[in-house]
Write a structure and sequence with these properties.
Elements (H helix, E strand, L loop, with lengths): L9 E3 L2 E5 L5 H8 L2 H6 L9 H17 L2 E8 L7 E7 L6 E8 L8 H16 L5 E7 L3 H9 L3 E12 L4 E11 L4
Parallel strand pairs: 5-6
Antiparallel strand pairs: 1-2, 2-3, 3-4, 4-5, 6-8, 7-8
Length: 186
């Protein structure tokens, strides 16, 4: 299934979401190598190189083509190049459920960018997939800012997935706060 977006992207004031492009590779490398971003994106290589970025961007294109996932670059008025990412991955085992995730670079933090991007992507996901009933979001319980974004974007905290996996960069096992947004809560 192919999910589409308007040619101009998804726009809300200063924030625009559009699919990632191969020409975004250098900006992606610069942003991912931010220590605060990399700490919580523990499943990606560090340092993050150009080849890693190109592989990711090709995977994003494939996700859009196959309908498995939809990853957006987050553009912010006044900042050069993509300042973050927000994406949805549709469940392969539970039709009607998708997971949403996000990150933003340091210069976009504290400005409502992650909340706006997450909300835009959530609204788009429910509109793009008529069978979608539930969006799930996981945030490290110790990542206060990320949990605040989930709450401000309208998600409901449901509980904690304890000791879900080890994050070598943080040197600890991670407990994830589980958040959800249901179609009828929009």
């Amino acid at each position: 299934m192919t999910r589409s977006i308007p040619a101009e992207g998804l726009v809300d004031g200063r924030v625009t979401l559009r699919p990632w492009r191969l020409e975004d590779a250098d900006a992606l490398v610069r942003r991912i190598n931010d220590a605060e971003v990399g700490a919580f994106l523990d499943l990606i290589p560090q340092p993050y190189g150009h080849t890693d970025a190109v592989d990711y961007l090709r995977g994003c294109e494939e996700g859009w083509r196959t309908g498995v996932s939809s990853n957006f670059a987050v553009l912010v008025e006044g900042l050069d190049g993509p300042a973050g990412s927000v994406g949805c991955r549709w469940s392969e085992i539970d039709d009607g459920v998708a997971e949403i995730g996000y990150w933003v670079a340091a210069e976009a933090r504290g400005r409502g960018v992650a909340t706006t991007a997450t909300r835009l992507a959530a609204l788009w996901a429910f509109a793009a997939e008529p069978r979608l009933e539930r969006l799930q979001l996981r945030a490290d319980v110790e990542n206060v800012a990320s949990n605040r974004v989930a709450a401000k974007a309208g998600f409901t905290r449901e509980g904690v997935l304890r000791s879900a996996r080890r994050n070598a960069r943080l040197g600890r096992r991670v407990d994830f706060a589980i958040w959800s947004l249901l179609r009828d809560e929009l």
